[in-house]
């Protein structure tokens, strides 16, 4: 029984890692996309951001389907969608199909976190939930960490079609294995609890927390997803292969933060706002250092690690949201809040791409677009600006909370 439970949890965790790899693929293939399809940076921003559109649109419906039909049916279908979303990368030269595929990948990926919630809740005791979910997140992050450079090497050695065909086949194999392994449990005949959804949607505190939390996702969902390696290469003339290796330190820091911040929060259970504000301030300082200083490779690793560590503010953020609702509305709160926050991923990708496209002079070196340090700074400046907005917002919420108490 324990071995079966572990296998089911591991498969769900591998799905989380798999979708994370497809999510950060733009960080590897952006230069090739620009040249191969003769497109601009605006289209790249759309390609990166539409993942989040699919993710957000499907998030609440997928949560409902998981409760209604169970993990055995919904999770394998979503793994299949996630992998088939990459099919246009090998079967088409039409950019519009790439866009559709990216949305499909986002739709399928929405079940990765929700599926983990469902499986851990069914197969493990409540007191083990936080530990098992944290380990799952770390597995997912490791997928993103260790996939970036190998993907770049494989693309250089075997070519585009071979690498993405293998990615799709691995996804389909994972879907089949998951379907075979998960027993048919965890279904429900209950109708959608509209009352719980309305409790969340009309809760002013939750909506404000979600809004300000969304302003703070830029370092992960705008920078790390697509532009960190390019930024390092063009700002500091770091070799592209080394830049890909350095960029993974954001995800390493993020994983470490998932171990450290729960401990800090356990010691300071009422300090949600203080933790979030401190993380925002740390990220603002790091981005300013990246913009104005000539950074060595070692210091770049340290600074990106700090960005990843501070991005784990999401733990305190989630805990604060949960504290705003009763137990029967926690799942609804999680779906709605995650949808709002993840929608900012589209915002950051589109804004960054449009700013970059506006200032780029069209220069291409060795078959790859060259933007220059000045364009990079102007494009990425939106991230610390939004971090500042989020930090001020949480500070105001803290002040209002103190007045209420």
From TrEMBL:
Subcellular location: Cell inner membrane
Pfam families: MFS_1
Bilayer-crossing regions: 7-29, 49-66, 73-91, 97-117, 129-147, 162-185, 206-229, 249-266, 273-292, 298-317, 329-355, 375-397
Bilayer topology term: Multi-pass membrane protein
Gene3D superfamilies in alphabetical order: MFS general substrate transporter like domains
InterPro entries for this protein: MFS, MFS_dom, MFS_Efflux_Transporters, MFS_trans_sf
Keyword Calcium: no
Ribonucleoprotein is among the record's keywords: no
Boundaries of every Major facilitator superfamily (MFS) profile domain copy: 5-402
Gene Ontology CC, one term: plasma membrane
GO molecular function, one term: transmembrane transporter activity
PROSITE patterns: MFS
UniProt entry keywords in alphabetical sequence: Cell membrane, Membrane, Transmembrane, Transmembrane helix
Protein name in the entry: MFS transporter
Species this protein is from: Wolbachia endosymbiont of Armadillidium arcangelii
């Amino acid at each position: 029984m324990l071995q079966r439970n572990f296998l089911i949890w591991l498969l769900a965790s591998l799905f989380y890692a798999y979708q994370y790899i497809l999510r950060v693929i733009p960080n590897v293939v952006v230069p090739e996309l620009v040249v191969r399809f003769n497109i601009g940076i605006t289209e790249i921003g759309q390609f990166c951001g539409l993942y989040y559109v699919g993710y957000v649109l499907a998030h609440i419906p997928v949560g409902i389907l998981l409760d209604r039909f169970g993990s055995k049916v919904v999770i394998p279908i979503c793994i299949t969608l996630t992998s088939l979303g990459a099919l246009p990368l090998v079967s088409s030269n039409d950019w519009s199909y790439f866009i559709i595929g990216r949305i499909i990948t986002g739709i399928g990926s929405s079940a990765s976190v929700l599926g983990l919630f469902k499986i851990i809740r069914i197969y493990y005791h409540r007191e083990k939930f936080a530990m098992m979910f944290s380990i799952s997140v770390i597995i997912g992050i490791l997928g993103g960490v260790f996939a970036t450079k190998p993907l770049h090497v494989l693309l250089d050695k075997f070519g585009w079609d071979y690498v993405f065909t293998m990615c799709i086949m691995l996804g389909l194999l994972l879907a089949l294995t998951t379907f075979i392994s998960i027993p048919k449990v965890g279904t429900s005949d209950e109708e959608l609890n509209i009352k719980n959804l309305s409790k969340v949607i009309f809760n002013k505190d939750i909506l404000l927390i979600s809004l300000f939390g969304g302003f703070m996702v830029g370092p992960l969902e705008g920078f790390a997803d697509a532009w960190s390696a390019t930024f390092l290469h063009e700002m500091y003339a770091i070799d592209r292969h080394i830049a890909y290796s350095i960029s993974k330190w954001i995800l390493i820091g993020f994983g470490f933060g998932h171990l450290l911040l729960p401990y800090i929060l356990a010691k300071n259970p009422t300090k949600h706002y203080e933790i979030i504000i401190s993380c925002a301030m740390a990220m603002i300082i790091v981005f300013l250092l990246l913009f104005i200083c000539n950074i060595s490779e070692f210091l770049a690793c340290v600074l990106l690690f700090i960005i990843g560590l501070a991005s784990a503010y999401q733990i305190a953020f989630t805990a604060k949201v949960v504290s705003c609702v009763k137990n029967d509305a926690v799942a609804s709160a999680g779906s709605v809040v995650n949808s709002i926050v993840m929608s900012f991923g589209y915002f950051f990708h589109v804004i960054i791409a449009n700013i970059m496209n506006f200032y780029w002079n069209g220069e291409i070196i060795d078959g790859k677009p060259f933007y220059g340090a000045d364009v990079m700074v102007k494009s990425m400046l939106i991230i610390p600006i939004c971090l500042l907005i989020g930090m001020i917002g949480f500070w105001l919420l803290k002040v209002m909370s103190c007045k209420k108490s």
